[in-house]
User: Fold this.
Amino acid sequence: MGAPDLIFELRRKGYSIMADGGILDISPADNIPPELVKAIRQSKAAILTELLREARAEWRRQKVIAMLDAAPGTQRAIYTDTDSDPHNVILTVAVRACQQTCEMLIPKVKYDPWQLLELIERLGQTTH
Assistant:
C-alpha cells in the first residue's frame, strides 16, 4: 500500500493525519490497528512527502480562489508554480462560472511562459 492509499485508508476510518515538521500527527492515536501502524512506520517518509504535496496543492487552490475573490469581474484565475515539482510546472486554474479548480502539469522542458500568456490572451474569452 502506497502513501496516498495509507492516508486515504486512515481518513476513511475516521483518523485525522497531518504533518508537523518531520512528525506524523495522527489522531486519535490510541486505537490504530497494528497492521496499519506497521505500514505507517514503513512508509513514514513517503507519507510526509505526500502530505506536503497535498498541502501545497491546497495552498495553490486557495491562491486562485482568492485571486477570483479579489477581482469580481474576472472569470478565470491562473497561478503557475515552478518550484514545487522538479520536473513540471504546476498550472492551477480557478473558473468562476462552474466554481471549480484544476491543476495541470506541464513538463519544464516544454514550458514557455510567453506561449502560455498568448494562449490565455487568445482563448481567455472563449467559453467551453
